[in-house]
Amino acid sequence: KALGELEDKPVVARAATQPAEPRRVQPAPVHSAPQPPASPAQANAAGKLSSNLFEIKASTPIRKEPSYKSSSIAQAHRGSRMVVVGVHGEWLEVLTNGTSGYIRREFAAPVQ
Asked: What pTM does this model have?
């Protein structure tokens, strides 16, 4: 059947006889993630060094700022381990040779 044939008749939609009651939605509770220690010394003192230790899954540049547009300050090679001192969205702040830099989260995995 072709669209727009003369046999087709327009149909008018009817409104519901009673308006629907508004749904009340409870806001989800906000859980704040614990902040990692500011330095490896604090991490070691707190006994949480292993939770801040990450292994690099694929070689990736370590960037000066948490952005793809930021310049690279070093290279993280597959299999190397780094201490994560902060999390900025999808970026991990890592220590390398006494300098902090940033790598994307998908390139690292926590060491168990």
From this structure: 0.54
Closest of 22, 69, 76 to residue 54, by C-alpha:
76
Please state, in angstroms and rounded to a whole number, the distance separating the CA atoms of residues 92 and 7. 65
From residue 96, how far is each of 5, 12, 28, 40 by CA, in Å?
Answer: 72, 68, 38, 11
Structure tokens at 62: 């370590």
Could you tell me which of 79, 111, 77, 106 has the C-alpha nearest to residue 92? Answer: 106
pLDDT in tens, 53-77: 999 999 999 999 999 999 999 999 9
Identify the DSSP state of 65.
Answer: S
Residue 87, both tokens: 């999390």
Helices assigned H by DSSP within 17-104:
40-46
